[in-house]
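Inputs:
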Amino acid sequence: MLSIKNLRASIEGKEILKGVNLEVRAGEVHAIMGPNGTGKSTLASVIAGRDIFEVEEGEVIFKGKNLIGMPVDERANEGIFLGFQYPVEIPGVSMTNFMRTAINEQRKYRGLDSMPAQEFLNRMEEKKRLLEIHSKLANRSVNEGFSGGEKKKNEIFQMAILDPELAILDETDSGLDIDALKIVAHGVNTLRRPDNAIIVITHYQRLLEYIVPDFVHVLFDGRIVRSGGKELAFELEDKGYEWIKEAQV
Amino acid sequence: MYRLNLIQLSVENIFGTMEKENNDILHELTQSEYKYGFYTDIEMDMAPKGLTEDTIRFISARKNEPEWLLEYRLKAFRHWLTMVEPEWAHISYPPIDYQDIIYYAAPKRKKELKSLDEVDPELLETFKKLGISLEEQKRLSGVAVDAVIDSVSVKTTFSETLEKQGIIFCSFSEAVQKVPELVRQYLGTVVPSDDNYFAALNSAVFSDGSFCYIPKGVRCPIELSTYFRINAANTGQFERTLIIGDEGSYVSYMEGCTAPMRDENQLHAAIVEIIALKDAEVKYSTVQNWYPGNKKGEGGVYNFVTKRGICKGTHSKISWTQVETGSAITWKYPSVILMGDHSVGEFYSVAVTNNFQQADTGTKMIHLGKNTRSTIISKGISAGQSNNSYRGLVKMTKRAANSRNFSQCDSLLLGDRCGAHTFPYIKAENKTSIVEHEATTSKISDEQLYYCNQRGISTESAIGLIVNGYAREVLKKLPMEFAVEAQKLLSLSLEGSVG
């Protein structure tokens, strides 16, 4: 589904990704771990297509299409979803309006008619239940006045509504208490299917107790330095990132 | 639906070939002031170019006006001659040659088109984006339509409903004939004929407009709209509107135009006067979408409008809501004079400027009565190389004890070549009143656009979404059917403003 080869990317002349290789197949959950400042969020942004990053070398292929140079909205319409680490507030735009616009633009891209209003509202209700959102979310402006935890929940809520083929969750666990974490993990697990894939970016092993990955990668200094099964996460938890750093030297 | 029909029609063509007759007519005009019926040919039913007392006598005579109204016009004209065009607004435009304008042309039927195929495709595209029905599209673009859905029959049904309740809703000219005493009693009482340069000009040469009277205690059952009426009446660029809400009455009045006018008109100088007597409430909503000129800033309408209401009686209320997206230049300050104690004035505005458009708009809230309240919510949106200014006056006079005003003026900038300006004037002459003013300036951030893009929303749609969200507070004040159109209009007028 996603194939990244020797990806090098920089921001303002500073190289962040220094040759990343990653293969993600349908049905898989990958976890990318690593200490702060090693390029985890940059990798997510580059896959999503944020233009402040310069891709110097390498390729990113999604479902056979080269993503380099493809606009952000087109990538999203192709089925890539990014759960933001810091979701932005959009005052005055209700969640209902935001989601309806998004879903219908994606449908339009795929040559489908707009989703009937009732079907859309049903889906909103269903996903609210899935994520145990009790507030009148639909009428609230996008992320405006949301607590940190609500914002993260809202990202997974949007993922559930949009039902992407590839979801990248960037530090979704940060700022969540244990109850919220369980709810979010339950939501993500419910969305796991043989025909989609999820990349979970996290600093801590904690989230991976609830979203069990098929593969774990350690990103360090712009490169994936270790890959393994879910046991790698436990090893990291035990030994800490220092272990990786030392192994690098 | 307004249609500007007093454009510099191809005068040269009409008059050029008939120069001799034209001279004769001019001669005749100067000799016999009240002579009726020249220009009998429908095609020729217009005043000669230029503005003199004779032009005014001609207009008045054509409309069969009473002597006092002619005098009113002449007095305004004489005063206008002594005035100079205002220069204080934050707008710039080449000088207007007032002698190069035709001040009266009787409604002319536009050439009827047989099908939509004959209509400018760009216009049709806009209609489509606005979601205007096919039948409506035909009507707006002058294609002949089935009589059943023609606006005339719609109007008739409404008129009967209104008449039963004693509501008078007709063209201004009709009102002069039907209820001259009412017109005379109120005309110019809110906007005096010497009020300002453009008001004086309008008072001298106004062509037609709307008149509305709601009797005591009557709540007008429908939203009154110029939309139905003006299609038939074809009022011109110097409109005159007078709305009177008698004691305890209520009316919601909509003025608007949802289709872009392609007419390359120059000057539009209207006056709207509203009188609210004791316990009366008048809501006036505008969606203005005149031709804004092209992307290079050529052409477009100069919209110099004086709108003012007076809350004459106690507990009366006047509310202005406007969505301004059109015109090359907008110069407009819908105001309320709060004379009655406990009266309420409101002003809700969204003004959008794109390309080279200029808007200097705002309001005046003049508090005269005790315990009066006013609210001002102004949302300016600038894009391209446009300039958008809010200019407002809040005045608390000595008598206006315990009065309150709240003003909020927000500006949203798209791109870095446009300008937003706020000029709030506050005059407080008593110690018990409270005046609050809040102002913000913001930009649509790259982060917001990126977030929307990542959900599959194109940049253009994202801007539409954000701008509509930003203006929501004002849009929700509009009557329902208007709000939907206004929303679409906002997105439409900002198309191509980013990227």
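Chain A is about 35% helix and 30% strand. Flag for discussion at group meeting.
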